[in-house]
């Protein structure tokens, strides 16, 4: 009987974490470039009461086993692109494809993002293209991008090449290109907050965008919205709540059966 208590308890714990993941998705429905997550489960160890075997044409063709519940295994991000929303800001960029922008992170390390709502930060070296938190955006060579121009005249092509239109209407190249990279296993990227991802041994090293798969396109005057579907998440929330409720009823049933067994002497 105690097995049922612990098994149903593992189900409640797992569904509680499932609700946490769904809640995080819903809370980020308006976060630029956010990618929704899905919690994956696996079953736990089994108690084998009778093992299947065949010997000289006789034996048991099937096992007699009882499981010990479930355990959360992984959170898997869905990197499907969100809708591209038109803006009037020349510093707003969206990636149409699987690439990531490269950013110099808060600890001096390189981090990656899909959030292209960039800003201009004034420094001793000039006007630097940065994220909303002030971290420098890097070009394809890993160098900070300097924009000592009228940003209203800024042009960014689909491959990330930067230029501006001077007072004579002539397009002048800036000699820098927005750094876009991809990963062999983007599901291995670690979310570190502030719309940033960090690479690790599971994701593999960042490679230039054009070297892996189909080339991504940069869309100026656009931002990528979150790919969270509110209705879908609400359905998942209801299913998780019902699963939690069913597991709690299993605990109640096991407790009642234990109570009956304890009262047999009376």
From TrEMBL:
Residues 219-264 form the Flagellar basal-body/hook protein C-terminal domain. Its main location: other. Keywords: Bacterial flagellum, Cell projection, Cilium, Flagellum. Residues 94-163 form the Flagellar hook protein FlgE/F/G-like D1 domain. Residues 7-35 form the Flagellar basal body rod protein N-terminal domain. It is found in: Bacterial flagellum basal body. It holds the Pfam family Flg_bb_rod. GO terms for biological process: bacterial-type flagellum-dependent swarming motility. GO terms for cellular component: bacterial-type flagellum basal body, distal rod. PANTHER family: FLAGELLAR BASAL-BODY ROD PROTEIN FLGG (PTHR30435:SF19), FLAGELLAR PROTEIN (PTHR30435). Belongs to the flagella basal body rod proteins family. The basal body constitutes a major portion of the flagellar organelle and consists of four rings (L,P,S, and M) mounted on a central rod. The rod consists of about 26 subunits of FlgG in the distal portion, and FlgB, FlgC and FlgF are thought to build up the proximal portion of the rod with about 6 subunits each. This is Flagellar basal-body rod protein FlgG.
């Amino acid at each position: 009987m105690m097995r049922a208590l612990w098994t149903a308890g593992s189900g409640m714990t797992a569904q509680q974490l499932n609700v946490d993941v769904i809640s995080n998705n819903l809370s980020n429905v308006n976060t630029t470039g956010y990618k929704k997550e899905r919690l994956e489960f696996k079953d736990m160890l089994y108690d084998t009461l009778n093992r299947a075997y065949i010997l000289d044409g006789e034996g048991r063709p099937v096992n007699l086993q009882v499981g010990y519940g479930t355990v959360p295994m992984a959170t898997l991000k869905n990197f499907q692109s969100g809708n591209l929303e038109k803006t009037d800001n020349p510093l707003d960029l969206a990636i149409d494809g699987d690439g990531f922008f490269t950013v110099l992170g808060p600890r001096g390390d390189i981090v990656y993002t899909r959030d292209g709502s960039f800003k201009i930060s004034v420094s001793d070296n000039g006007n630097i293209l940065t994220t909303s938190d002030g971290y420098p955006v890097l070009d394809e060579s890993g160098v900070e991008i300097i924009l000592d121009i009228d940003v209203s005249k800024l042009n960014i092509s689909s491959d990330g090449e930067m230029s501006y239109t001077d007072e004579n209407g002539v397009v002048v190249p800036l000699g820098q290109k927005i750094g876009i990279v991809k990963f062999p296993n983007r599901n291995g990227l670690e979310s570190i907050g502030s719309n940033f991802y960090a690479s690790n041994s599971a994701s593999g090293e960042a490679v230039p965008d054009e070297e892996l798969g189909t080339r991504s396109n940069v869309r100026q005057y656009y931002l990528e919205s979150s790919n969270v579907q509110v209705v879908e998440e609400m359905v998942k929330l209801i299913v998780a709540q019902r699963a939690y409720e069913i597991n709690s009823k299993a605990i109640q049933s096991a407790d009642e059966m234990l109570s009956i067994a304890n009262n047999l002497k009376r």
